[in-house]
């Protein structure tokens, strides 16, 4: 979720009025970019209120009280919906994606994921064999991540109203005592690391949809990140924050970071890892890989004195072999992300203005 500092303060019981130049929902409102930020910051946050929601972290961190003033365990809680098309793609499917997406939101919040719920909206006419395949995939993904799906719900909608199946998953995890990660915690001088090549998921889905063929098979990067996140935090307990750059890609993640922490971000284009197939597909389709979704990557913001050690630890993990140090947090141009290009120039990296790749997560 992106942060918007222009949120209105409303009297109790007042109905928020969307402050937008649009009167209807567009596909771009689900892109993870500027329109998503506007919808969240100007409608949902003032509409529901509350400091926890307003913090706009990947997962809400909640303290449980024993009732006598003594605080109990801290829990992380998150929810997400998945509407990918096609339902099955190289490297994964909507079920695997649903489990990993929720596990990863808990993991980058510093939590140990424990339990999931899942709600299925099924379209009349969906083949039962497809649903069995999705359920089996979800079960395998839960086992891989070490979580248990404990409750759920099912609804069926008319033929033509549901695009096969939509899945909503929620997750609960335990936050260790003393751990506090936040997108508001970045400081000038911090280093920004990414756990591997960007854009793999979005381009893998697009390759199926558009019939693109590559010399090698390009697969989605969807994967559970709780093990990698644990490795980072065991290496550097002072890690400021982590994010998984899903909708809106790396651009949204670092723009949210810059806005929330009131800092500037400078990225080095030559340091950002990209597969040759992803780069070629983006050039062919006129896409910017910085805006393409990922489902098995994270960014970590760490103090400069720990950056090399954390990078080494990330590269030692199977999901972090292609990790790279891609940029810095700076005091200049707060709230803005600057990319130092491979030809020596500099450009501003803004939030995605519309919908670049629809229905990929």
UniProtKB/TrEMBL annotation:
Gene3D superfamilies (UniProt xref): PurM-like C-terminal domain, PurM-like, N-terminal domain
Ranges where the PurM-like N-terminal domain occurs: 58-175
NCBIfam families xrefs: hypE
PurM-like C-terminal domain sequence ranges: 187-333
Signal sequence interval, chain numbering: none
Stated family: Belongs to the HypE family.
A GO biological-process term: protein maturation
Protein name: Hydrogenase expression/formation protein HypE
Source domain of life: Bacteria
InterPro entries per record: HypE, PurM-like_C_dom, PurM-like_C_sf, PurM-like_N, PurM-like_N_sf
């Amino acid at each position: 979720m992106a942060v918007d500092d222009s949120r209105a303060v409303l009297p109790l019981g007042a109905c928020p009025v969307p402050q937008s130049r649009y009167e209807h929902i567009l596909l771009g409102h689900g892109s993870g970019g500027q329109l998503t930020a506007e919808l969240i910051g100007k409608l949902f946050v003032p509409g529901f209120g509350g400091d926890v929601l307003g913090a706009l972290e990947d997962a809400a961190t909640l303290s449980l009280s024993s009732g006598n003033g003594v605080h109990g365990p801290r829990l992380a809680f998150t929810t997400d919906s998945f509407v990918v098309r096609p339902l099955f793609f190289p490297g994964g499917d909507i079920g695997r994606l649903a489990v990993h997406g929720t596990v990863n939101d808990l993991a980058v919040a510093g939590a140990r994921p424990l339990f999931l719920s899942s709600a299925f909206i099924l379209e009349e006419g969906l083949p039962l064999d497809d649903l069995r395949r999705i359920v089996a995939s979800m079960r395998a993904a839960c086992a891989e991540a070490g979580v248990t799906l404990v409750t759920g719900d099912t609804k069926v909608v008319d033929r033509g109203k549901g695009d096969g199946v939509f899945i909503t998953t929620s997750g609960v995890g335990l936050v260790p005592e003393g751990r506090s990660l936040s997108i508001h915690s970045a400081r000038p001088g911090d280093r920004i690391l990414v756990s591997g090549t960007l854009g793999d998921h979005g381009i893998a889905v697009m390759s199926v949809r558009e019939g693109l063929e590559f010399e090698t098979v390009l697969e989605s990067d969807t994967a559970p990140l709780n093990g990698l996140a644990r490795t980072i935090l065991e290496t550097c307990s002072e890690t400021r924050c982590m994010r998984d750059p899903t909708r809106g890609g790396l651009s949204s993640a670092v723009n949210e970071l810059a806005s929330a922490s009131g800092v500037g971000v400078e990225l080095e284009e030559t340091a950002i890892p990209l597969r040759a197939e992803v780069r070629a597909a983006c050039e062919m389709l006129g896409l910017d890989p910085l805006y393409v979704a990922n489902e098995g990557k994270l960014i970590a913001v760490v103090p400069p004195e720990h950056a090399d050690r954390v990078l080494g630890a990330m590269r030692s993990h199977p999901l972090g072999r292609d990790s790279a140090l891609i940029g810095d947090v700076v005091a200049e141009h707060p709230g803005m992300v600057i990319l130092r290009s491979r030809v020596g120039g500099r450009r501003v990296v803004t939030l995605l203005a519309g919908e670049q790749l629809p229905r990929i997560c």
